[in-house]
Please model this.
Amino acid sequence: MKSLVAIQAQIQDLQKQAAELRTREFRKTLAEIVAQMKAFGISLEDLRVALKKDGGSGARTAGPARRGRPPKSTADSAGGTRKPAPIKFRGPGGETWTGRGKQPRWLKAMTDAGRSAEEFRV
Model:
C-alpha cells in the first residue's frame, strides 16, 4: 500500500503532465483553427458576430470553465487594457460601490434609514 506522501507526489506529477499536454494540445488546436480561418476567409469580426448570435456560449460543454490561456484583463475595443472603475462609496461592513449602475442594497438601506449617501463617499 502506498503512503499518502507517495500518492500526493504521483498526483503532482500527473497534474504537471496534464498541464504540459493541455498546453501542447491548445497550441495545436489554435494552429488548426487559424488554418481553417485562413482557408475559409473567416475574420475575427465574423467570429464575434457568430458568438453574439449564439449567445456567446460557443460549443462549450459542462466542466472546467476555460482551458488553455488564462483570461485576459478587462480590455477595451481597441485591444488595450483599462482599469476598473475607482471605488466611490464604502459601507460600514466594507461593502463598496463605484457609483455606476443601480444603487446597491446596503446603500439604499442606509439612505432609506435617513442617512446621506455622501456619508459613505470615499
Remarks:
- The radius of gyration is 24 Å.
- DSSP finds three helices and two strands in the chain.
- The chain has a mean pLDDT of 84.
